[in-house]
Structure prediction request, 319 residues.
Amino acid sequence: MPIRIPDALPATAALESENIFVMTEHRAMHQDIRPLQLLLLNLMPTKITTETQILRKLSNTPLQVEVELLQMATHAAKNTAADHLEAFYTTFDAVRDRHFDGLIITGAPVEKLEFEEVDYWPELCAIMEWSKTHVHSTFHICWGAQAGIYYHYGVPKHALPEKAFGVFSHDLVKRTSPLVRGFDDRFWAPHSRFTEVRATDIEAHPDLELIAVSDEAGVYVAKSTDSSNFFVFGHPEYDRETLRAEYDRDVARGEARALPAHYFPGDDPAAAPEATWFSHAQLLYTNWLNYYVYQTTPYDITRAGEKEGADEHGHRSEA
Prediction:
């Protein structure tokens, strides 16, 4: 089944060129089914790139998904054309009275700042508070995951001695979680961050559970026990060349940066990177959409966000 996005969004052409089924708004309007309503809060500076990466993962499921793009009203985006933001993005004030099956909050290059020092932190807090009653399940990525687990559960972030940068091997802590159904016992995922959330803090919190960790990169996936919040501290959506682009950018700025770990064959930056994380990344998004959004969200979208209790598999019982 397709993903439904605006006809003129730049990601449309990119996804169609990959033979991904993208449904036009016109065609979707003539289908008598309720698609999943997802809101993507894009905090990344390269918004078009991030849109395309995440939409690619959301599209490869049997579900029809309608995605709306959200930007921060209290932050001026400098790396995306104003006409793109005007055409495709909305603001929180425009959606605060609506309900959504799912919310995705991306990362942002602000890890070195304290949360309260980020200029849009009050607005982000308002959105995360709103999500408690208006969103069925929220998927947080990288800094977005650190911000979410701090806001909702008080788990702090800690500075790393050096940037976690590269593709790292991970082990499953909770193999029975439907979120990682189909995963190998050990799998690879990209990380790119200066801070971390510690496994001991997550394990000590009664409302959180640890799903996957890396000996080198630390915590990768955690979730709330009621399945309302998911925290992914890496970047499973990254393309093959994303880490190379970040490395080249940092070097061009004069920053001392080690090569991304386990990324270039033979640590040769002239070599084509090996993509070792694509299959698990797709499963992660697909499993979240299927088990924790589609199968458990109420058909009446206005009830999305109601807390009726859930078991560890995301199955909710009626109040």
Q: What stands out?
A: The two ends are 32 Å apart (CA to CA). The CA atoms of residues 123 and 231 lie 20 Å apart. Residues 313-319 have pLDDT under 50 and may be disordered. The longest strand covers residues 158-172.
